[in-house]
Every structure is written in structure tokens, then in C-alpha cells.
Amino acid sequence: MDFRSSDTITGPRREDVLPTTATAAVKVVIVGGFGVGKTTMVGSVSEIRPLTTEETMTQAGVGVDDNFGVESKTATTVAMDFGRISISEELILYLFGTPGQERFWFLWNGLFEGALGAVVLIDTRRLEVSFDVIGRLEERGVPFVVAVNTFPDAPKHPAEALRAALDLPEEVPVIDCDARLRASSRDVLMTLMRYLHSLALPLA
Fold first, then answer.
1. CB neighbour class for 30 (10 Å; exposed up to 12, middle 13-18, buried from 19)
2. Between 20 and 30 A from 137 (CA), which of 1, 30, 32, 63?
3. Which residues make beta-bridge pairs with 92?
4. Are 105 and 76 in contact (CB under 8 A)?
């Protein structure tokens, strides 16, 4: 077979290569209920082309998946989303977005292996879908921050009201974000990193 030079695989794309200055990598998971914006957040903030496993929703999911409030959604993550972002020249975050539908939650076990922390993305129009998600994180002892994805028609509540509704400890950060915007999603990840750092500090 005649292989021309243009057909030869020479390695990863330039944008996928880790910076030579990178000395540490951290695994972070993005979790939340169905349709809260996890795939959007990973895609907006990733410095590499994100890996997604979105599939078109079919009639097979009718009566199985709860899409109340997001009836216009036509695709769903069935395994995970994956992206990468450099927080500094030395620190790299690997981002894993989890599937939101409960029938795919069995995949969470593998995705949470080795994760240092998590972002819980919530939609205030459907706050109830976050209860089980937060409960599973607490059971596993995974530190997390809560990011309120600001959908245009979503009701706005003070952070303390959301904290009370979600029964969150006082120290867990609750912040607003727009998952479509890279800067906003990066701010969420920076908040998580600062929170994890505070947990690692010795008590005075």
C-alpha cells in the first residue's frame, strides 16, 4: 500500500500537547441533573477540542427520562464529556462531565475514581434534580462547589436561600455562572481550586 506523507500519523495535534511547564494534573468532575449545562461548561472552558458522547434522544427514553423543564433538549450525554484547561503554567485540570440522566448514573463510579473535587451545576427552575446529585457526592466524601447556571428564564435566589434549600454546609461555595462563557466557567473552576486549597490547609 502506498502511504503518502500526508497520510502519516505523526502524533497528537499541537493544541493537544501538554505544556512543557506542567508539573501537576488534577481530575475534576462536573455533575448535575439532566440538562443543567454540563456539556456546555466543559465545551466552553476546554482549551482542547472536547470529547463528548452526546446522542440524539429517541422515543425509547419517553417515560424513562425526566425532561420536565427541558422539553426542547434533543441530545443527551450517555457516557461522559472530557476537556482540559491550564489553570497556571504548572497546574492542569482534566474535566469529566457526568451524564445527568439517572439511568446512566452507574457510570459515575468510574468517573469519580481519583477525582480531587467536583462542580455541581444547578438550574433554579428544577432545583429538585440536584438533591440526589449532592447526596451522592456527600456519601463519597468528594468536596464540591455549587454553580448556579443563569438560564435567562430561571428565577434568581440569594446564595443563602439556595444554601438552605439544598441543605449545604456554610463553607461550601455557592456562585453564579454562565456555562456558555469561558471566563465564567473558568471562575467556577478557580473557586473550586481555592476551596480545595482551603480544605488542605492545617487548622490553626
1. buried
2. 63
3. 25, 86
4. no
In the three-class reduction of DSSP (H, G, I as helix; E, B as strand; rest coil), residue 141 is classed as coil
| pTM for the full predicted model | 0.76
User: DSSP per residue over 70-99, as a string?
Assistant: -TT--EEESS-EEEEEESSSSEEEEEEEPP
Q: How many CB atoms lie within 10 A of CB 163?
A: 17
Cβ-contact 32, 99 below 8 angstroms: no
Amino acid type, 58? T
Tens digit of each residue's pLDDT (9 = 90 or more) over 128-182: 989 988 998 999 899 999 999 999 889 999 999 999 999 999 999 999 999 999 9
Taking Cα atoms as reference points, which of 190, 26, 182, 16 lies closest to residue 94?
26
Strands 81-86, 91-97: parallel, antiparallel or unpaired by DSSP?
antiparallel
Cell numbers representing residue 80 in the block? 461522559
* Cα–Cα dist 187/181, whole Å: 10
Nearest to 118 by CA among 50, 49, 173: 173
Question: The cell 462531565 sits on which residue?
Answer: 97
Q: Do strands 117-122 and 144-149 pair parallel, antiparallel, or not at all (unpaired)?
A: parallel
Structural domains in the chain plus CATH codes: 20-56+76-200 (3.40.50.300)
Cell of 162: 439556595
Residue 42's pLDDT band (cuts 50, 70, 90): very high
